[in-house]
Design a protein that fits this description.
The structure is a homotetramer.
Chain A lengths: L17 H15 L5 H5 L9 H20 L10 H4 L24 H22 L3 H31 L22 E4 L2 E5 L15 E5 L2 E4 L5 H9 L11 H10 L13 E4 L2 E4 L11 H10 L7 H8 L34 E7 L25 E4 L16 E3 L8 E2 L3 E3 L1
Parallel strand pairs in A: 7-10
Antiparallel strand pairs in A: 1-4, 2-3, 4-11, 5-6, 7-8, 8-9
């Protein structure tokens, strides 16, 4: 079995620290659930979301199914039915519990899922001790850990959505007070045309959808020095943005009408406060707008006489910048205003995922992973849009310049914002 | 404020034992939840069902809102938001959390709901001690306890439905082994025509919808000596009952097509076993068929060359029989076959609610309770059918000959079966 | 083959004039379509409605299927596929074109349907000439003609609904100007209790659902001397009737919310005019309110401190009154205000169908017609409410005191109004 | 008012023949309706489709609104309400009749729409005579005629869909017998990498979405010499293509499940015949497969170990080939098998629109037309996929190498097929 994509070298997994590293990532998930009750962990607030318990079990199942079962001698699954319950979408594995019914599973309960995690961890330690240096295992473990990190962000998105639906508006955790920020003038950074490479290079881990690295001809253009702020977005709203169909894509306008959108998700009705993982909080004018759909980002850009960047434009600008910013590790779990101390472009990484105008499609020469793991990314390459740069709920190590996140244009429960672009 | 219906005398509440009696009923609810995890109690498997936690809180809210708030001096609500969260359908109280979103409330958690119950109980004890002898309080307390009992049965129905949706098929509780039973020949008991009284008589508690007692002219007819059994129903299925539109009401046939019905709810695919509150169990041929909709009961009766009874026919036959049978107190939580030892008609009470062919309409001269409590029963008097006799999940004290239960004709998660009738 | 219900004598069909009579009824349908374009006749404005062309073809199919095919020697169907296309709901005949797709049939076109009618008529003449005196044929022909009359009213309802959906608001026909009327004081006519017969008596034609005649015990009550008028209903609206949930049945309130109801169907937004078959016309305050659903009729009655009559109450009052009123033959096709010249109760027949509070259920001892025709009425005996008395779109000969019309409580495109009742 | 896009020169409109040319295109629409009854022209078989009558009126409205109203002195609209009824989707014009209710308009009838067309034509003649040489008018007239041609193809698609829903399976017209064809071996034509221009060049008319011409870096690849045939597609079906989720995009698999797809639209159940505009016809194995969705085309390609082309790959191969093929003018209205006489790649133009793997997005530097006409193309640039090359229902003059058609990936009532591509 050769799982790695043909065009991609085996990534280096730190073999001496492998168990430690494995457990560090796994423990982050557990930590995120620390303040959650069993009920919090069992509920599903909409079909797009999953219960925290499910995330916890599914990310364990990933290791069990793709590592323990095939590689650990005499491994016996914790519970054979979990293969059905916690398979997310791998049809080539077999049947699966319907996504929209994940919130109907009161059993296994939180305690049993904790046992499941412990069971998987214990056996993963054994496997990593024995064979963790083998490239295939190292690759798969890295994949499993990156997968776990994706579910860490999903778990936070889903808890935030669940709590926002509760009239009691519970908070996930007391969060640090916001840092006061000030307005930064919007400027556009010119970028010349060129035939430039994008996609993952080198031997570090990346997802199959970031490969192969290839050349793209990019027209001359300019990117905003900063993210679009709450203040910018309020102007758009006050100018009647949500009632001007000419600003919207046709499907976007249909969403506005059907959903009754008139402001970002989580803003309160008078647009002075927003719901955060730390409860309701005053809206910071200078912080980046967050929880807008692609349709809203696109309409805003049109109103502003600009457009969204392509993913190639974004990546070529981001490529040589340090991956620093407001990530999960900062413990803020909410976007911050830009600091003028840094050098522009500000906040390319962290704070909010940036919508691009690029549909999520395969790169030229794309080969999905062989076997079941080929279902990981490739089958979602229709109807979704690419987002770049990571958010305040993304582990810092998880992102890179070539990282491609993707959501449907009508979704907005992810930490998504935007940066403007212009033709030269 | 005069809450009792005009035409109904104040019921006698046992004043000397009133706190004891109150607590006995309340403790039954707690007991039913004994084996449930917090997750079990938080989930909602369909819009018709509610989380166990919600039942527990709502039945407490009923006492808080209708007794403590108006009658207990200086009473302060446990949490003012609960008035919104745990109001079921009383528009005259104010807004309410949407029914279909009861399963989105991870908070208040199970522990807090337990505190809420304790808080309400403590204050109810005070109120009952002080004023429990007053007729209005006695009446309202009795109403609240009857309301609680209704939610006890709903809680069981809802837990059964939730567990049945879980591929792990958890069991609520280990149940006593079924008693072996044998076939009883079907006979029809002739009943002559007459102008007969139905409806609640006397001063004991009854719901407003059982009043006023009034005369009905009943044609000569005959009622089956026993309930329709699983065996009877299997014959109907094997004879092609589910694929013969001529046997069905038009709306019933539409349900069959839309829902893909081909057997009672909870039967397994090969029709040898059924899901119970004690897990899957072999189908007992001689036990009454259960969890059929009105449409199925009606189609079965038509196939059998018979019909369902009217509620007046049922009540006049049941009126002078002792209220004995397989009720919640038996601890079986599942219908049993009839015992030939008893005298026919068998199983008029307990085991399964019996569908009648009577739409749920007001009795001539019906007056709903005054004020908000007028919403209790009257506003449901459209599109639903009356069921009679109580089930294995009904507290014995809760039913009587005049008791009118009601469900929509397509619903079948309640413990519902049928008894045949014939024109003379 | 014995088609007539067991308990019902063969009706007398005027055998000497039988062809004439047959053609008279058939020609009314053709006349109603006189002003319609082929497009008007082909469209379907909602699943409840059917294209005029379909009504025309289906009522012909009824004669073809139930009379020509079984009784006319060597009869060959006009087109064998019409058995599929124009079967309405007789499952025992075989498959049928889905009701909601009747508006997808551009073919057969109007001209071909006219040929079909002519073909059926020509052969019916032959059959009636030869065997029209035989009781079974006489009965079936009478049934077919009554069936045709029902579709005449449906055709008018459906054209009105279609035209109302068209922003051009076409009119079906120029209608006679309304007669000016004046207010009549509302009075209640007392009716004593009694064990009274209802249902069809005698040997004239009646539908199976009107039989058998049987005794009902009726409580003392009173019925309004007149219908509820537009003025009465406006008062209800102005008093906030559509925003007071306490006035509504639970399912009714759900309809109000879901459909956004705030006035009768066909009233314009400022409630000064209504859409009629003759185009928009000023609202006549003293004319009976029309095109209200059961839920609206019931809420109005509750607001007025009254209730709707039962069908038995209505029938016993109507039984000895002449069947006179504003019927289809008057050519008004719209309800008129009551004339004080007549004797109360006014307008028991004609103008508007009167909602009763009686669910449509079988009479004691009801036997549907044998064979396929048993599907005519019986299978709709769930979830619908009985209306009495006929309307301005009903042929006068078609109704009688025992006639039971029925619609779902949320439907309101029929000519439906109400008369109040009170307990004594 | 400057309507043309900034970057596009004014197209040359043949000014000496301008009225003749205008009328030629207009008359094609009329000719396509020749065999249709008024009923055929009034019905709407699904929300995506429109009645033929609507197409006829809407394409006239386009001239009335964008040419006659602003440019013809003293022009009075034929009927002011038509601006509401026949506006398709131009929000900046004002309100519009809901798309899904186009089939509810029996009025204006076919005759009145014919008058409307004649009225518009008469005034357009006047306008063209007087001012047809002015560049802006010439441009707008050309745009209107291209718009009319798009609706000609839509009209055929919609009539085919309507007739296919009718159990009588009417035919639109007797079509010429198919030409017998034979199998052509599948070969791949290699195409080297390069930085190549795509998009419209020159001064002829093109839609705004084809501009601006710009360079794209294309990787080395190969395109199939021929279209995928019915035979190829049957192999895919027989190999279980419709039941192998691993072959499908995730959203595609959801469509398969939801819609119950197991073959192309219009194939009969045993896959030996297909419904055409000339009625049912035997399936020609060597003809290109038609009426498949993007999801099906993509799954087929994956199964075949290939992929779909990008639009740039398609355009650069097509760019220097003559625009010849089986277009509307051939009068076949159905795809034919390829003739080996021609030189490969076969059938780049005509027969079937070819799905590409390119989402429909703006070209770099895209500027929509100014004003209302900016709504023509740009607002659909989300969630749709590009198709190229025209079909047997497309007017030959209407297409060119740079022409971009677009449909949602789940749509398949258009004449859509596919050509395979491969990475080098």
């Amino acid at each position: 079995m050769n799982i790695a994509p043909r065009t991609q070298p085996m990534p280096v997994f730190d073999c001496t620290q492998r168990v430690l590293r494995y457990q560090q990532v796994r423990d982050v998930t557990t930590g995120l659930c620390h303040s959650l009750t069993p009920e919090d962990m069992a509920l599903q607030s909409m079909p797009d979301a999953s219960p925290a318990k499910w995330h916890s079990a599914h990310s364990s199942w990933f290791f069990e199914h793709f590592l323990l079962a095939p590689y650990l001698k005499d491994y016996r699954p914790f519970d054979p039915q979990f293969n059905y319950l916690f398979n997310s979408y791998y049809y080539t594995v077999g049947g699966m519990h319907p996504r929209s019914e994940r919130g109907l599973l009161s059993r296994p309960d939180v305690a049993e899922v904790a046992h499941y995690r412990a069971h998987v961890d214990e056996h993963m330690h054994k496997l990593l001790d024995a064979r963790g240096r083998e490239p295939e295992l190292a690759y798969l473990t890295t994949l499993g850990l990156n997968h776990e990190q994706q579910h860490q962000e999903l778990l936070l998105m889903d808890i935030k959505h669940l709590f926002a639906r509760n009239p009691l508006q519970p908070r996930w955790r007391a969060l640090p007070a916001p840092v006061s920020t000030s307005a930064l003038p919007l400027k556009f950074i010119p970028c010349p045309e060129g035939l430039l490479p994008i996609g993952h290079a080198g031997s570090d881990f990346a997802f199959d959808n970031e490969t192969p690295r290839h050349r793209v001809f990019i027209q001359a253009h300019a990117l905003a020095n900063r993210l679009t702020t709450n203040n910018d977005y309020l102007e758009f709203i006050r100018a009647g943005g949500y009632s001007a169909p000419a600003l919207w894509l046709s499907d976007g306008w249909a969403s506005v009408q059907r959903e009754g959108w008139n402001r970002p998700l989580y803003w309160n009705q008078d647009m002075t406060a927003e719901f955060t993982l730390g409860g309701e909080r005053e809206l910071d004018s200078h912080a980046p707008v967050c929880h807008v759909s692609y349709y809203e980002a696109d309409a805003f850009a049109r109103w502003a006489g600009a457009r969204l960047p392509t993913e190639a434009e974004w990546e070529t600008l981001a490529a040589d910048r340090a991956i620093e910013g407001n990530f999960m590790e900062q413990g803020r779990f909410h976007p911050l205003g830009a600091s003028a101390v840094a050098e522009p472009p500000y906040q390319m990484y962290g704070d909010v995922w940036e919508w691009t105008m690029s549909p999520y499609t395969p790169y030229p020469g794309f080969k999905p992973l062989a076997g079941t793991l080929g279902e990981y990314n490739g089958k979602f390459m229709a109807n979704q849009m690419v987002l770049r740069g990571g958010s305040c709920a993304t582990p810092r190590e998880h992102v890179r310049a070539s990282y491609r996140n993707f959501f449907y244009p009508q979704q907005r429960w992810q930490f998504s914002g935007l940066r403007l672009a212009q033709d030269a």
